[in-house]
# Entry
Amino acid sequence: IGLFTFGGGYAMIPMIQEEIGRYGWMTAAEFADILAIAEMTPGPIAVNAATFVGYRAGGMIGGLFATIGVIFPSLILGVIVAKFFFRFTGHPLAKGIFYGIRPVVVALVVVAFISVSQTSIFKTPIDYDFITGMFKKPLTYIDLPSVFIMLGSLFAMLKLKLHTIIELLGSAAAGIVIFYIIGI
# Structure
């Protein structure tokens, strides 16, 4: 995945999730939880997610090899590309390649968003029944407490300009209160 993915950690998430599903290492909901933990821990999200998934699938050795597998190919490619990058920066072919990669990276990030939202703010997978039923009975398909936490976090980020750590701790506290103490 580290060798074939451009666009950073969020672009890697759909590929990581696909491999998890193919080998049955964990459920989509468990992967969404791992992404939340990977986002909160220091370091790139793809490396953190790969480490957690590797640990879950193969223990300490699995975590180590998953981390190396995500980092090492990208490192080698980065060194090779860096050697030639400045020499070809202004070349029309290089510009065309980078313009072509941009929409793909955006699409991969959107797929990651949809994938995570299926297990975090929606109660059922997004499919034809979901799309048709969503307009008839939206509250049947949307997990309202999760949406309120998401909107509160978005408000705290955009309007209140809260520090990310405070925002994460607040969201975690809200989740604990809503889902475990109140029991919604």
About this structure: The longest helix spans residues 45-88. The chain has a mean pLDDT of 82. The CA atoms of residues 82 and 98 lie 14 Å apart. The chain has eight helices and no strands.
